[in-house]
Write a structure and sequence with these properties.
The protein has about 290 residues and is an alpha+beta fold. It has 5 helices and 7 strands; from the N terminus they run H-H-H-H-E-E-E-E-E-E-H-E.
């Protein structure tokens, strides 16, 4: 059979395309846009040509989830994987910061503990020193009070001889016994011992004591056997003076006794009501 060439359809001049009908079909196929899955109409707008799944919803002509042919379950799974990845990325810096802060935390805690132990050592030494001062004050006051009691008894014995009152109030008399034994007694009551006890003038005593207990163990070296030492001075002051007799008083009358704001009229025939030792004399610690 003789093949016959079928003439091509008449075309207007200038529209002929080399390659024949097959090439015309390919060109027509390229020019036709591909059909969207699930029979969705092709979207028009500025988001045309974007990569599917890499842009936020609402990039087209209308808001919504632009899946561009992807299943919703696949998109949700991808987004969940992205969120987990972001959370893992956020956790790494936090763990790194915690690791860097741990040595600083240890250093701060160690410094606070060292400071607390130092304050404890200072507190122990201060408490020991305060105990020594309390013992010294009590010992000095006890010695002075013993001397005061002796002077008061001596004044009562010489009540009928007013010429001796002045020297008794000044402490310039003979016959007083030592009073340091009272200092030792009161120092022992305050857990200390007397190192020295000496008169301070006519009406005073200075007592030095040392605590029986040491400061104790602390972070400060050498405090295990360290004991506090301190001293105190107590004095006796006369509170009373005798006023001279007036002209109308007889030789057997006693002068009036002035003790501060109080005045005593003494009757030789009634000596039951007399000033007490603490009304005649004042005992106090001397200013250091």
């Amino acid at each position: 059979m003789t093949s016959q060439q079928i003439p091509a359809a008449a075309q207007p001049p200038g529209s002929a395309h080399p390659g024949g009908e097959h090439h015309d079909q390919l060109a027509s196929h390229r020019r036709r846009p591909p059909a969207l899955p699930h029979h969705q109409p092709q979207r028009q707008g500025p988001d045309g040509g974007r990569v599917p799944g890499h842009h936020r919803g609402g990039g087209g002509d209308r808001a919504g989830d632009h899946g561009d042919g992807y299943r919703a379950v696949d998109l949700r799974r991808d987004r969940e994987q992205d969120r987990r990845g972001h959370r893992r990325l956020r956790r790494h810096p936090e763990c790194g910061d915690a690791g860097q802060a741990f040595p600083i935390y240890i250093t701060v805690v160690g410094g606070l503990l060292l400071l607390a132990f130092a304050y404890l050592a200072v507190g122990q030494a201060s408490a020991n020193r305060n105990g020594a001062q309390t013992a010294a004050d009590a010992a000095a006051l006890a010695a002075a009070q013993d001397t005061r009691d002796q002077l008061a008894d001596m004044w009562v014995d010489e009540i009928l001889d007013p010429s001796k009152w002045k020297r008794i109030f000044e402490g310039d008399v003979a016959g007083l016994t030592p009073s340091c034994w009272r200092a030792e007694q009161f120092a022992a009551r305050n857990d200390a011992r007397v190192l020295s006890c000496s008169p301070e003038g006519l009406l005073g005593f200075t007592v030095e004591v040392e605590t029986n207990r040491a400061v104790g163990d602390s972070i400060v070296p050498g405090t295990e056997d360290k004991r506090s030492k301190t001293s105190a001075t107590a004095v006796v002051d006369a509170r009373c003076t005798s006023e001279p007799l007036v002209d109308n008083q007889g030789s057997d009358d006693l002068p009036q006794l002035a003790c501060g704001d109080e005045k005593w009229v003494l009757d030789p025939q009634d000596l039951d009501s007399l000033p007490t030792a603490d009304e005649l004399f004042d005992v106090h610690l001397a200013d250091q």
